[in-house]
Request: fold
Amino acid sequence: MHDGCSGEHESGKEIVDKIRMMGFNKNQLPASLEINCSNCDNTFQMEYMESACPSCSMVYGVTPCHSHSAEFAKAAGVKY
Reply:
């Protein structure tokens, strides 16, 4: 399942599943990312590779290779 840093077109669910399987989901990001929630339009700071919007519980994931930019954080689903 590990494909290096080439997995940029994965869905949010695939990203969250991958980082959970690899044990990275609870890793802190090098720098927090500002996320504009696609579900409720709330802006929040994503601090871990898997984080949830505090307003609506939309879960977001980002892989270690792409953790430098919010553009790579993808929504997986509410309470996913």
Notes: The chain has one domain: 12-78. Residues 12-78 form one domain. The chain is about 15% helix and 35% strand.
